[in-house]
Each structure stands twice: as C-alpha cells, then as structure tokens.
Design goal:
about 350 residues; alpha+beta; 2 domains; about 30% strand
Length: about 350
C-alpha cells in the first residue's frame, strides 16, 4: 500500500481517477475530560491561572451544650477553605494550503484538513488532562509490589485485592461515587449513570480484569442501555471501567535490562479533579485564513491557513479520591500502532 504525504500542495493524482471514499483513520475517543469538575473560561478573564476551592469538613459536635451561666459561651468553630490553583494555557496548531489546491484539487480537501485538526485538538486536550492525573501521589502497586521497579521485575498484574484495597481507600476517605458524567457534547450538562466509582484502563488491562472472579461484562448489565458510554467494558465490585486508547503505558527497565510496559489504571471518586474544558464559548476555536489574508506577506494570494486554538488546564483537587494502580499486562500486541503514523 502506498502512503503519501499531503502538505496542502496540489496532489500529483489530480488527473487520475480515484475512489472518492475517504479511507478511515484511527481516532482516539476523549475520556479523561468526562469525570472531573468541568469549568469554562469567561471572556476577558485572566486565562493564565485557574483555581478551585475545597472546604474542609467540621468534626461532629458530640459534646452536650452546658447551660449558659453568663460566661460559658461555646467557642465558635471555623471553616477552613483550601485553594487549588493550576495553570491554564493556550494550545493550537495549523496547516497551510496553496491557491492551486484551492482551485484545482479534486476533493474538498480543506474540509478533510479541518476534520483532522479537530481530532488533533481533542487528542491534545485528552493527553494534557491524562498527564496531570497520572501525576497523583496516591498509588497502589499491583499484587503486593512496593514500587514500580518491583512491578516490572516480577511482572505484576492487577489482582482482586488491589481493587478491594482501592475501594476501601476511597470509601474511608469519603469519596463519593459517580451518579452522572459529563455529557460528550458542547454543553456542560451531565448524563445520569448507575452509582459507582470509575476506572480508566488501557485495553491491555481489560483482559486481566475479565479474568477476575465476579467480573461482569457491560453487555451483561441489567441496565445495559445506561452504560457510561461505548467505551465502558464492564464492572467489578464498586468500580465501572472504561477503556482509553490514549492511556498509553510507561516503560520501566527490569532487573534483566529489558523494557517492560507499566500500565497506569486510574480509579476515581467524584470531584477528584477539575478541568477547563473545550465546552463553552471560546473554549475551542477554528481559525481559517483565506488566500491573501496575509496581506503584503502574500502579494499573489498564494496560501491560506487552517487551524485551531484552545484553552485548557487541569488539576487534581483531592489526592485521596484519585488512585493510580500500576501493573503489567498478561497479553500485549507488539505491532507498531498505525495511528502513530502522524509522527
């Protein structure tokens, strides 16, 4: 199969007959934005920083009140507010197209370019959020390992006890289960789901989870129609799991000097993190500059540009409500991933 590069110049195939079906490319679904607090950036606001507040709970008042004797006024309690600040950045990319491709090309290639850039924007935002969540300090190493090196050396897989401990951690820290997730639309509304904690896993980890006792595939749910989305694969105990093709492993060298893939499963309670999302006016913008829009820098109207720009940021709000489980996987595919051909 011949692979051609397209840079916005006229294709040499312009005079040939071709199949007008656009070949499908691999596209990742955006998942990491679904389970956090969704924020938008207001117009004319400072977009370099964003912040969120967390109020600490007050302990139960279990001491009976004494009768007032003129002096024994109960000491007032105080509300403690913690502020979490995180950076918000502008991201974007563009491509250039020529006047000849605009005039002669056999297809509406500019629409295809815009579609590709839209996928790039989605993947960019998803990756930024993913990397923030992976930086959490609340970690369980699979099957009794004490660090990532131990996971790599002994090829540790996820076992039932890892999920039992994780659920216990979330419950004792009063982590709330999800009863709704962010809609996959331009709105900030939520879609109701069956109550559960959520796990974001790599496809390789799914096989190991399916081998656990009491695992339930999503198609076996009594309320299958209320699955989180098409990427939900099943549930175990208090957790419902969704696959992310963008949840790539990290590489750790084992004691023998071999590279081992370490998979990072993220187990979440509600309100564990916040994101400034693509939703809302100005969250993501398409930028199309027509031929000649560069003025004197393009005196013969020979090129235009198509691009996107977005504002995004993410932060962990409560480390206790986000657990990273590090493990290896029983079955892996060593074939080079075709969707990496953009590199």
């Amino acid at each position: 199969m011949a692979v051609q590069g397209t840079t916005g110049k006229l294709s040499p195939k312009v005079t040939a007959v071709y199949d007008r079906m656009l070949l499908t490319r691999a596209v990742d679904n955006q998942l990491f934005d679904m389970f956090g607090q969704a924020k938008t950036v207001q117009a004319k606001s400072n977009t370099k920083k964003a912040f969120a507040y967390r109020y600490k709970n007050i302990l139960p008042a279990t001491t009976p009140l004494a009768e007032y004797d003129g002096t024994n006024i109960k000491q007032e309690n105080k509300i403690v507010r913690e502020e979490v600040e995180y950076g918000v950045g502008h991201y974007g990319d563009y491509i250039i197209y020529s006047d000849e491709i605009d005039l002669y090309d056999f297809d509406n290639i500019k629409s295809s370019f815009l579609d590709i850039l839209g996928d790039q924007a989605s993947l960019t935002i998803d990756t930024i959020t993913r990397d923030v969540l992976r930086g959490g300090t609340n970690v369980i190493y699979a099957d009794g390992a004490t660090d990532r090196q131990g996971v790599a050396d002994d090829k540790k897989k996820i076992v039932e006890n890892d999920l039992i401990v994780a659920a216990l951690k979330l419950k004792t820290q009063r982590g709330k289960k999800f009863k709704g997730v962010i809609s996959g639309t331009t709105r900030i509304g939520t879609t109701p789901i069956r109550s559960a904690y959520v796990g974001i896993i790599s496809p390789e980890v799914t096989t190991d989870l399916r081998n656990l006792a009491n695992w339930k595939n999503v198609e076996d749910y009594a309320d299958y129609g209320k699955s989180i989305n098409e990427d939900e694969v099943g549930s175990w105990g208090d957790f419902r799991f969704v696959e992310s093709f963008n949840n790539e492993p990290v590489v750790q060298e084992d004691a023998d000097g071999d590279d081992v893939n370490i998979y990072l499963t993220l187990l979440l309670a509600q309100n564990a993190y916040a994101t400034v999302t693509l939703r809302g006016k100005g969250g993501i913008q398409t930028k199309v500059k027509a031929l000649g829009s560069a003025g004197a820098d393009d005196p013969l109207d020979q090129y235009g540009t198509i691009g996107w720009k977005a504002i995004h940021g993410a932060a962990i709000l409560n480390e206790a409500w986000l657990i990273r489980v590090e493990s290896t996987a029983s079955i892996e595919d060593g074939t080079a991933k075709h969707y990496y051909d953009y590199s």
